[in-house]
Amino acid sequence: MEGWIGGDGAPPSSGRAEIPHEGNSVIIHFMNTEEKNFLLSQIQTDVSLISFLSVIAVFFIGALIPQFNSYDLSVKIPISFLIVATFAFVFSALILSNASSKISTGDSERAKRHITYGYAISEYLGVFLFVLSVPLAISIITADLYLRIVTFCAAILGMGIYSLGGFSLLEGHFKKSRRLISVIMILFGTILFFSQIYAFHFTGIAIIFLLVVLLVTVLAPIKKFQ
Q1: pLDDT digits (tens, 9 = 90+) for 200-219
Q2: Domain extents for the chain?
């Protein structure tokens, strides 16, 4: 019997259930109690992780704001990114939590919508925006080039391994577009960092980057972009 959302009757090898696509969107209706509990447990674990990340983002914001008596755009932009990422973590956790009731009642379509948008928001507006804004935040705290470069390299390499190495929360959900989007995001983060260092159209690039992130977040859960 097709039990798992992946549709093969057994848990996927990665240990993460996949989201139903066209042709098998009603598989949740046929999941037994054990299979539903597995999916619900997976979502609960991810919600806990996302909530923890929101706490870290709040810590960064709280540590940054007292450092400045006045704010120009070079300071406002990294802090704004951290604030947006914090709310993205909060609302994605709420959306994923609401998916649990849809799974329990077998409402496949609404469960799929909640899960795909919940993970897209947490990943692109949350994880990517948070990680790529940390080097920008460090740059406004210290002028030490060594600390700036170390933070930037750690963020970019870590994000690359996380998103391209198969460790992402989106693994198994957005198979086709995820890697391409990850590469674009990392490239944007690199350009943004050096535009801040050299004061080269930093504000304009930051605005474009945020618009791209918002666009990707909206489009990623749509089937033809997955």
Answers
A1: 999 999 999 999 999 999 98
A2: 27-225
